[in-house]
Amino acid sequence: MSHDVLGELRAGADDFLLLIISSPSGAGKTTLCNRLRTEFPALAFSVSHTTRTPRSNEQDGREYHFVDVTRFRRLVAEGSFAEWAEVHGNFYGTSFVEIERARQANASGILFDIDYQGARQIRAKVPEAVAVFILPPSMDELERRLRGRATDDDATVHKRLSKAQKEIENYALFDYLVVNDDLDRAYDRLRSVVLAESARRQRKALLAEGLLRHGRVSIG
Ligand code: ADP
Ligand code: 5GP
Q1: In angstroms, rounded to a whole number, what is the distance separating the alpha carbons of residues 2 and 140?
Q2: Does the pLDDT value for residue 7 go beyond 80?
Q3: 144-167 pLDDT tens trace
Q4: CB 20 within 8 A of CB 117
Q5: What residues does each domain of the chain span?
Q6: How would you list the strands of the sheet with 109-113, edge to edge?
Q7: Which atom of ligand 2 is nearest to the CA of 81?
Q8: Could you name the CATH architecture of 2-214?
Q9: pLDDT tens for each residue of 175-217
Q10: pTM above 0.85, yes or no
Q11: Which residue out of 31, 48, 168 has the highest number of ligand 2 atoms within 8 Å of its CB and is therefore the one to mutate?
């Protein structure tokens, strides 16, 4: 059954990385995640379901699976989501199918671009998941970036700014805090987290066992 995928990940002595990246809207999470996806193509990206309307540059099935509220509620009732939440007046959720797809494709892990409510739910199910929170250098800069993105109207920008405070209050849910001041510096910090986490002993135990048993680590 699809819902066992998180249980398997808990129990499994394998190196699959569950990487959660959250931030208040506008802090630069999408920009940083896109860089990560370019540098680490073996890391699958979890395409969430959402009831929000697509932005002009977004494509169904690529950034999100865009669905209406009726369909979203049905998926919730069917237990299709590993986590879901209401964010800025719309519903968002991560389906078990996305995680299974990444496992079947032999990805090295999966990247979740989700909010703190989703991070809390995934961590409750899989405490080994790694959670990173991207912070803006200041609230003024956050507002500048939200306005500079020019994809949202004024009311939406205001709604997102007033939510930012609440999101930042939840920073303690996360393992790592990365300040996105200068983009290159912030990206260096983020990629360091990914590299360090992939070398974590629990994720590399099978390599050490291979060395003990067969005299060499088996790569791949
Ligand atoms: P989020 O996904 O967190 O909502 P985005 O990645 O869409 O944020 O970034 C919001 C805006 O800020 C975009 O216009 C992006 O180009 C810009 N931006 C991201 N990081 C930086 C940075 N370090 N310095 C200046 N502008 C940035
Ligand atoms: P946006 O509408 O700007 O793409 O995303 C708004 C917020 O929803 C972001 O903080 C993003 O991380 C979050 N989000 C996107 N997908 C999911 C999801 O599947 N679950 C949860 N909990 N949040 C999500």
Answers
A1: 43
A2: no
A3: 999 887 777 888 888 889 889 999
A4: no
A5: 2-214
A6: 43-45, 109-113, 17-22, 130-135, 176-179
A7: 19
A8: 3-Layer(aba) Sandwich (3.40)
A9: 999 999 999 999 999 999 999 999 998 888 888 888 999 999 8
A10: yes
A11: 48
